[in-house]
Description:
155 residues; globular
Amino acid sequence: xxxxxxxxxxxxxxxxxxxxxxxxxxxxxxxxxxxxxxxxxxxxxxxxxxxxxxxxxxxxxxxxxxxxxxxxxxxxxxxxxxxxxxxxxxxxxxxxxxxxxxxxxxxxxxxxxxxxxxxxxxxxxxxxxxxxxxxxxxxxxxxxxxxxxxxxxxx
Length: 155
C-alpha cells in the first residue's frame, strides 16, 4: 500500500472520530458530516501530521454510517469489555467516538488487519489524550475484536 493511501485512510479515521463526536454533541446528521468531509472540512488540524492528506471518502462513509446504524451492537461489544463499574456513558465523548469508529472498522473492513485498525485508533487517542486513555482504547478494541471478528484475523 502506498504512503498516500495510508495517509488517506488515517485522515478518514480521524475525520470519522471527529464526525461521530460532532454528531453526538451537536446533533449533526450523517449526511451533514459526510458532506463536510467530502468538502474538506474534516478532519480538522490536530497534532497528528496525517491530517494534511485528502481523506479516503469511502472508508469515512463506512465508518460513520455503520457506527450510527450499528451503534447499539458496537456499544454492547464495548460495554462488555469495560472495567467493572464503568458504563459507556461515563467515558469521555471523544473516547466513545474513537471506540465506535474502531468497532465499525473492525467489523466492516476485514481486509484491514486487526492490529492495524487498533494501532490507528490508539494513535488518534494519543492526539487527544495525554493520560491512560490510549491504553484503555487499545485494550477495549482488542477485546472487541474478539466479538466483532469471531472468525479470527482477516487479511
